[in-house]
């Protein structure tokens, strides 16, 4: 009983203290830029749950979902192809190195040229940035497949599709997951940036709008909402990952205990 | 932005398999990368020239490079480049020092580690771009607005890696140091630091890339001085060639940052088994 209490205290203690400090430090604040936490929280439901949820939050999340899924599909598909064929990899590696090193946000102006400022543009922006971590990690993961297992699969003449499903994908999955996690945080950043740069709705657009109108408590509530979305998505990701890679975590733990 | 697994991976970050030995290499293999780049250049030249892509959207690469040459003669270009590099370097340095210091303090104190972990897990995934409106209110289009974003984003990369690194210290070594009553500073220097260094370096490499992304983002969105702002200006004034020339420069900086970070990592870890094994192989 005391153990459970103690661990709850450990998890919630500091966050509560910090929120309390924020609350007390800004209570009755007359500073225009740092409104009291109370007024931010009062502004929160009215700002986001009356109309804006369907108008701004859902479109943003939709673009994010579509862009991120496309990035995963393209990244894993191309990554498997590039990782499997040595020549192809050697051919593309320097070019990929350049595109990976390009900070994704600077592609926003270029993509606007081609795709205008609609939903398509935002999805392309998200894909163009979120693609690289998952692509390059898939390449590395496929390359790292155990030689003996690879040769065994060849000797048994597993058909390519079987080999892919039974050997290559599972063996590369921990690395793919590591890439997918980085891609997710880049995708969120790009969703916000593409909306801040040019849009007529969406979270990024609305928050900048609040800032320009000096609707400070509303702006703060938007920052908090973005933070909550980031945290929520990373929690969902970790849940999915720990399910999908349960076998891998187990194997590593066993390895460690042996060693 | 590569994962902590690629390149030099600290022990226990995943299935980092050894690079397979080169086999049946042919003479053309080393040239393939050059051919790849050359092919890309040819495509970027021919598509707009033949009208497959509208050259108002994608000018031929020769036009971009010619524009780059003209830009190189302009002092404004160099001052933008300087601002970008200055902001990136300053932000990265602050994040490195702060992340390492906080990481070592938290990591070496069991009580702090337990109490702060939930807060760190919560603050880390907050997208740094959420802070843009706040930064604009506080500093306007000043360089400090962008610096705030850069430091926030890079700090977590360093901090988390340092925490992993400190947690990786061999318990026997730690207990030995305690038995000999090493002073805290000596303990950090001789026991914690050597174990944590590979992780610090991974954090450094990740942070260097992230810092550049946020630096350019800040310039692009907030309008603080630098290449990002010049790109936004070029875009809104329809100077497509200037825009592409500046994007090429930014990409080149990105490549140099990645290569440089990897080089620093290798030098700092020359003594470390993971690097020595790679060199021997």
Features:
heterodimer, A: 259 residues, mainly alpha, MetI-like fold, B: 281 residues
Structure description:
The complex is a heterodimer of chains A (259) and B (281). Chain A has 259 residues and is an all-alpha fold. Chain A has a single domain, classed as MetI-like fold (Orthogonal Bundle), CATH 1.10.3720. Helix content of chain A is 85%, strand content 0%. In chain A, helix 5 packs across helix 6 and helix 8 (160-197) runs parallel beside helix 9. Chain A is flat. With 281 residues, chain B is mostly helical. Chain B has a single domain (56-279), classed as MetI-like (MetI-like fold). Helix content of chain B is 74%, strand content 0%. Chain B is built from eleven helices and no strands. The longest helix of chain B is centred in the C-terminal third of the chain and has 38 residues, at 184-221. The two termini of chain B are 26 Å apart. In chain B, 42% of the residues are buried. The model of chain B is unreliable at 1-16 (pLDDT under 50). Chains A and B meet through helix 1, helix 4, helix 5, helix 6 and helix 8 of A and helix 1, helix 4, helix 5, helix 8 and helix 9 of B.
């Amino acid at each position: 009983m005391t153990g459970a209490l103690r661990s709850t205290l450990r998890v919630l203690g500091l966050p509560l203290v910090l929120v309390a400090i924020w609350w007390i430090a800004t209570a009755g604040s007359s500073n225009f830029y740092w409104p009291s936490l109370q007024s931010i929280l009062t502004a929160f439901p009215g700002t986001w749950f009356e109309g804006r949820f369907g108008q701004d939050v859902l479109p943003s999340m939709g673009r994010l979902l579509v862009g991120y899924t496309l990035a995963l599909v393209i990244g894993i598909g191309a990554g498997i192809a590039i990782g499997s064929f040595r020549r192809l990899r050697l051919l593309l590696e320097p070019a990929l190195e350049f595109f990976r090193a390009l900070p994704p946000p600077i592609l926003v102006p270029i993509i606007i040229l081609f795709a205008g400022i609609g939903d398509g543009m935002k999805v392309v922006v998200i894909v163009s940035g979120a693609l690289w971590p998952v692509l390059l990690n898939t390449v590395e993961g496929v390359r790292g497949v155990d030689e003996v297992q690879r040769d065994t699969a060849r000797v048994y003449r597993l058909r390519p599709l079987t080999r892919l499903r039974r050997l290559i994908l599972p063996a590369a999955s921990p690395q793919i997951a590591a890439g997918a996690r980085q891609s997710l945080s880049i995708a969120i950043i790009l969703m916000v940036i593409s909306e801040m740069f040019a849009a007529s709705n969406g979270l990024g657009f609305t928050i900048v709008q609040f800032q320009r109108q000096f609707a400070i408590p509303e702006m703060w509530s938007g920052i908090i909402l973005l933070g909550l979305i980031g945290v929520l998505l990373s929690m969902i990701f970790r849940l999915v990952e720990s399910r999908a890679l349960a076998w891998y975590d187990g194997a590593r733990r066993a390895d460690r205990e042996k060693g | 932005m590569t994962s902590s697994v690629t390149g030099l991976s600290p022990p226990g970050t995943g299935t980092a398999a050894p690079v397979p030995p080169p086999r049946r290499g042919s003479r053309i293999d080393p040239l393939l990368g050059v051919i790849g780049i050359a092919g890309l250049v040819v495509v970027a030249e021919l598509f707009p020239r033949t009208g497959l892509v509208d050259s108002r959207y994608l000018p031929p690469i020769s036009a971009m490079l010619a524009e780059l040459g003209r830009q190189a003669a302009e002092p404004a270009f160099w001052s933008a480049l300087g601002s970008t590099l200055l902001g990136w370097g300053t932000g990265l340095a602050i994040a490195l020092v702060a992340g390492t210091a906080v990481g070592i303090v938290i990591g070496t104190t069991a009580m702090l580690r337990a109490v702060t972990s939930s807060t760190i897990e919560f603050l880390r995934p907050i997208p740094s771009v959420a802070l843009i409106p706040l930064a604009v209110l506080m500093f306007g289009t000043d360089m400090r607005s962008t610096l705030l974003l850069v430091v926030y984003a890079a700090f977590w990369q360093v901090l988390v890696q340092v925490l992993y690194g400190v947690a990786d210290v061999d318990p026997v070594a730690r207990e030995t140091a305690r038995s000999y009553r090493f002073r805290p500073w000596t303990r950090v220097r001789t026991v914690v630091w050597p174990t944590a260094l590979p992780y610090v370096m991974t954090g450094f490499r990740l942070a260097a890339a992230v810092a550049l992304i946020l630096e350019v983002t800040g310039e692009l969105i907030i309008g603080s001085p630098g290449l990002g702002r010049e790109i936004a200006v070029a875009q809104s004034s329809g100077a497509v060639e200037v825009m592409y020339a500046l994007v090429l420069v930014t990409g080149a900086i990105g490549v140099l940052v990645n290569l440089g970070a990897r080089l620093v990592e290798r030098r700092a870890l020359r003594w470390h088994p993971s690097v020595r094994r790679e060199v021997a192989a």
